Amino acid sequence: MSHMTNPLATVEQLYGRSTLNALPQDLQDTIFLAMQSLTQAGGLLLRLPQSVTAQANVVLARYWATISWPFVDEFSDISAASLFLVAKLSSHPATPRDLCNVYAYLLSPLSPLFRPSSDPSLSSKPDKTLYYLSEAGYNDTYARVLALESRILCALSFDTHVALPHGLAVTYLKALDFLDVSPPARLAQRVVAYLNTALLSPQLLYLTHQPSALAVAAIYNAAKDLDAKMPECAWWEVFDVDREELGFLVVGMRSVEGAVRAGREEVSAELREGNMITRAGIETEMRKRGMVLGNGPSSGGAAAQLTEEDILMRSLDERADQMDS
Amino acid sequence: MASKSRWADTEEDAELVAKQKREKEEKKRLKAEKARKAAEEEQKRIAAAQAQQAQAEQQSPQSLNEPPTKRRRLTPDQDGGDKTEQKGGKDSEGGGSTGESSAKLLRFEAPTWKPTASVENYDKLNDIEEGTYGWVARAKDLRSGKVVALKRLKLDESTGGGGARAGLPETGLREIQILKDCSHRNIVGLHEVVINEAAATSQNANRKEPIEAVFLVLEFVEHDLKSILEDMAEPFLASEVKTILRQLAEGVAYLHAHWILHRDLKTSNLLLNNRGQLKIADFGMARYVGDPAPPKLTQLVVTLWYRSPELLLGASTYDASVDMWSVGCIFGELLAREPLLQGRNEVDALSKIFELCGVPTEETWPGFRRLPNARSLRLPSASTAPAALTSSMIRAKFPLLTAAGCQLLNSLLSLDPRNRPAAADMLRHEYFRQDPKPKHEAMFPTFPSKAGQERRRRKETPNAPGRGQKAPASVDFSGIFAGREREERGGGFSLRMI
């Protein structure tokens, strides 16, 4: 059965993301979206098959569900480490040097990933020194990736198994004779597009639903979009998905596009200034909003401003938390 | 029964809203109640029919475009969940089928993930084995009192300290992943993975603390087949060989059915407990494959004595049949009480194989000449070689084996991988149905435990090739039959079977 099922997040893991001391939800969503897009871009540039990159996305999402503010690691490193880990276990390993080079490029001012195509820095002649990664820089990046790799594994109790819904969806399409829709590839393409988009969903759909449900919902959405004729009975039950679950996923998958658009317009433009979101950026944003900052582990910034008393109080709090747990 | 009545309640709610349907539903409900008294089987069928009809009546294609009325509960408080459920009941006039679907849906059990625990939960009892395989110890779980085997994952020397270069080895991670995915009585069970104390406690405190040690907590099994074979005074009975072989085939069939190649089957990796159960262990070489098998698999797998001829000849595309060759070698070893093909190196291993199974010809193994290392292979040509050279010696080597057993061994040790049976086919072989029947596991003899008390002896078997080791660019097999040809010109190939 393990080929068709995934471990799912517990209610506490999902709920923990929206408790009072956590980051505001919109910032969380922005960070998550940026990390997932970065992972996809990294997978593309490393020429990894989408099956590997998608698994890295899911592993990243699982790790994301276990960590909370203040974050110990930089978001781009989390993305790189998930991709490195999953690729290493697949039949398409990425060499550390390639990985670090790709991420150096994606985080450089020349990367078109988080910039509108009209950005002037992209049109000018590329200055290759901007994404040149020296030997020392490579060693630093790689050491961070390795440290994170083991942290991810620890957080997931070494379970890196990911079952993707893509293959199931094709099987379901065949079972439903949906592939007869002309042209036959269009529907399947649409289904796969929905499944890949769902990887970015701030609702963490891959952590709350089994692949069979995701596949059915993607087929439903795709068939609706293309006006393909669906069976009139409750066909989703054949694939062990109830109507309620399907309804939730159908709406969830359709809402990703809106969420991405909204995130891009509102928060991210000023937050990342065309770059990948960093912890420092989040700290600045929080201060701008006048919110109390957690004791970010990064040097300088907020941590430096804390008085001795604050630090003492915090350590007491931490001890109390430890005793509670 | 409990769930039945709940469906019935929601049905009633829906009926209050849909007046037209109520009478009809009421009748059917009564009818269903009657039937419930009659027989449970009968009642289920009627309920199903009823729900189907209701669904057909109320099917409205637009309903799914509306926001869902009921969601998977994502907050821990109970009250919130109840409220939404009530709301769901009220809203359900459009697509009333929410509560009525009686189709039995398969619910997947979904495990979760939680931080890795510390090795301090286990108390070491004694070392079992130390050496090239890494470190294995017998330990007691302090929480449950159960005895387990702790296997320390071999981290490269550089990964232990701060200057990590390759990260956690993928072989170890694959082993963990595959064992986690497997659940079969003939495959050693993985309880959990634990790490050193400092790394385990630092996870919660959001501090960075490198992992220094990773331990696999495995089911404890008393013996391994290798040391039993070495120490036993009398060989296994024919019935006992069948029991062991059948369990091995069952385990391998499970692995292959789940797209896993073990790639290092040998007697020291087969464990046997005191209840006669065999467990396949050590998945350090194992990996998932697809069908067709991915190209460019490493040929550096399987311990030399159990390595199939196509691997020796450098095939980079291979499938489950490499495991079946190893099964054949183990079968022979169970009968002979010593490894069947103890080659000193690749060349020697291959010549031992050809000695036992005959020299391949274009008929017995079509296309073998195209394998990378076959070019340097100089074999007596098919037309001139005597039949004795190209035919198998297995029948002669195991005179006590029945004809069916011999046929099975012969097919497992086919030079052409396509002729080896799949593990599932092997289980249906006549050999297992013939007298003597496989001995019942409970009747299996017990053996003095080594792993229990003292240190296990170091193995003399060679090891599986190391990870990252380079495959020899081209092995020179030209020497194999160099002297043989002369021999042949003399009095023919001498049989050394007697």
UniProtKB/TrEMBL annotation, chain A:
<protein>
    <recommendedName>
        <fullName>Cyclin</fullName>
    </recommendedName>
</protein>
<dbReference type="InterPro" id="IPR043198">
    <property type="entry name" value="Cyclin/Ssn8"/>
</dbReference>
<dbReference type="InterPro" id="IPR036915">
    <property type="entry name" value="Cyclin-like_sf"/>
</dbReference>
Automatic annotation (TrEMBL), chain B:
<comment type="similarity">
    <text>Belongs to the protein kinase superfamily. CMGC Ser/Thr protein kinase family. CDC2/CDKX subfamily.</text>
</comment>
<keyword id="KW-0418">Kinase</keyword>
<dbReference type="InterPro" id="IPR000719">
    <property type="entry name" value="Prot_kinase_dom"/>
</dbReference>
<feature type="compositionally biased region" description="Basic and acidic residues">
    <location>
        <begin position="16"/>
        <end position="45"/>
    </location>
</feature>
<feature type="region of interest" description="Disordered">
    <location>
        <begin position="1"/>
        <end position="102"/>
    </location>
</feature>
<keyword id="KW-0808">Transferase</keyword>
<feature type="domain" description="Protein kinase">
    <location>
        <begin position="122"/>
        <end position="432"/>
    </location>
</feature>
<dbReference type="Pfam" id="PF00069">
    <property type="entry name" value="Pkinase"/>
</dbReference>
<dbReference type="InterPro" id="IPR011009">
    <property type="entry name" value="Kinase-like_dom_sf"/>
</dbReference>
<feature type="region of interest" description="Disordered">
    <location>
        <begin position="434"/>
        <end position="498"/>
    </location>
</feature>
<protein>
    <recommendedName>
        <fullName>cyclin-dependent kinase</fullName>
        <ecNumber>2.7.11.22</ecNumber>
    </recommendedName>
</protein>
<feature type="compositionally biased region" description="Basic and acidic residues">
    <location>
        <begin position="74"/>
        <end position="93"/>
    </location>
</feature>
<dbReference type="InterPro" id="IPR008271">
    <property type="entry name" value="Ser/Thr_kinase_AS"/>
</dbReference>
<feature type="compositionally biased region" description="Low complexity">
    <location>
        <begin position="46"/>
        <end position="59"/>
    </location>
</feature>
<dbReference type="InterPro" id="IPR050108">
    <property type="entry name" value="CDK"/>
</dbReference>
<keyword id="KW-0723">Serine/threonine-protein kinase</keyword>
<keyword id="KW-0067">ATP-binding</keyword>
<keyword id="KW-0547">Nucleotide-binding</keyword>
